[in-house]
Amino acid sequence: MEDRFEKGMNVLKITNKENIEKIFENLEDIAPDLGRFVVEFPYSEIYSREGLDLKTRELITIGALTAIGTAENQLKSHINAALNVGNSTTEIVEAIMQMSAYAGFPAALNGIMAAKEVFKEKGLLPVK
C-alpha cells in the first residue's frame, strides 16, 4: 500500500509536475514540513478521492482560489494544472468569469489576469 506522501506525489506528477520542486524549495528554509502537508492532505486525501476527475477538481479549485482573491501564486499554479489535465483555456476563463456573480468583479478580474499570465507564458493567447 502506498503511503500518503507517495500517493500525493503521484497526483502532483499528473497535475503540476513543473512546480513540484518549487513547492519544496520555497519552504525549505522556513517551514519544510508544510510542503509535506500540502502533498499528503490535499493531493493524497482530497484529489485522490473517487467521484470527480482531476479535470473537474482543478476547475473547482480555480473557482475557489479566484473567489478567495488572495492566492495569486496558487491560482496560477492550478491554472497550469488545469491545462495539464485537459481543461481548455475557454473552460478556465468561463470558470473564472462565473466567479464574478459569486465573489465579485474584482476577484474575477484578478483571476482573469492570473490566467492571462499563465496562458501568455504557454503561448495560448489569444483565447478563442
Q: Unreliable segments (pLDDT under 50, ≥5 consecutive)?
A: none
CATH level-four homologous superfamily name of the largest domain: AhpD-like
Number of strands: 0
CATH architectural grouping of the largest domain: Up-down Bundle
Could you report the average pLDDT, rounded to the nearest whole number?
95
Question: Strand content of the residues, in percent?
Answer: under 5%
Number of domains: 2
Order of helices and strands: HHHHHHH
CATH topology of the largest domain: AhpD-like
GO molecular function: peroxiredoxin activity
Protein name: Carboxymuconolactone decarboxylase family protein
Organism: Methanobrevibacter curvatus
Model description:
Helices cover 70% and strands 0% of the residues. The protein folds into two domains: 1-49, no CATH class; 53-128, AhpD-like (Up-down Bundle), CATH 1.20.1290. With 128 residues, the protein is mostly helical. It starts with a helix and ends in a 7-residue tail after the last helix. The mean pLDDT is 95. The chain is built from seven helices and no strands. Helix 5 (72-84) packs across helix 7. The radius of gyration is 15 Å and the shape is globular. The chain has helices spanning 4-15, 20-27, 32-46, 54-68, 72-84, 89-98, 105-121. It comes from Methanobrevibacter curvatus. InterPro entries: 4CMD/NDH-1_regulator, AhpD-like, CMD-like.
